[in-house]
Amino acid sequence: MQISILSPDKIIFTGDINSVKVPGVNGSFEVLSNHAPIVSSLVTGVVKITKSDGEVFQFAIEKGFIEVLKNNVSLLVEGYKEQVSA
Amino acid sequence: MGANLKEVRDRIQSVISTQQITKAMKMVSAAKLRRAQENIQRIRPYASKLQEILSNILSSMEGEANLAFGKERELKKAAIVLVTSNRGLCGGFNANIIKATQQLLDTKYANYPAGTVELYYIGKKGHDILKKRDNVIHNRTFVNLGEDLGHENVSRVSKELMARFENEELDHIDVIYGKFKNAAVQETTTEQFLPVLKMEQSDKDSNADYLFEPDKDTLLSSLVPSILQMQFLKCVLDTNASEHGARMTAMDAATENANELLKDLKISYNKARQEAITNELSEIVGGAAALEG
Fold it and tell me: Rounded to two decimals, what is the model's pTM?
């Protein structure tokens, strides 16, 4: 599953991932391969990504949007903050 | 004749040093222009994806989208945001934006009572010229938006504009800025910022049935401010790139002019020098002839 994470100022990450967990408006949810097409707005919270090689990384966002279509995830975030600790 | 010779020499010196300055400024502007263009490029992926999501939502919607930011109201208070540069020496760039502002004030808003229009200044140059106008309100909050043209900083302005539109403090907002075409061409553009012009609905059908969370209307109402912020950011970044492009062109022309000037000055310097030598020679010859008697 491909993901591209974009902020207004830069492209944060693009690449192959296994899953992504995002803070949706109605609670956080996880997107895995072959997820149904969805558009959702995101609220302040933590995004957690598992890359295809198993590495996990996460960061905080203020708000954003996610679009999933045919194993292509676009994550648009505002107020991106790197965050190392869980 | 000696005095004239020295005068011309001094002129030549001063033209040469001015030319060095204009040359250097041109180089600096070229470098800054490149950076400004990169900034525009950088926001493009984000902006186009936002637009894509928007058209996906709109195309799956029945009928017109009902947007809070799209409401036309009777015009009682309006704002014009004019984006200019902080520094001069960039040809007619700022003058064109200021002229467009005055034109808008004298045509569209000519029949409204004084104080209807509020001018939002971004960049010092617009403020320097227009601060003397007395039938408008001057808003200087963001004159020094400064060198930080990041998304967060610029969004302070668009957020305030949106908030004031929502609170019905402003009924109509225009943005006047220099649209960047290429390094040599800038287009002074007036764009309506709020109320939002009808959102374009893409003709091609969305190729998937999306789930929308929470629901389309809520999604739209959080998507539209983000899009407006990006639009505004683009105006500011465009102006920034245009400014450097205009300065580069102006400085190139100035360097060219200095070259012309130097050519003329060198000719008149040589003429003066030749004249002085001829004079001296004829004096010597005349003196010798007098001695021989």
Answer: 0.86
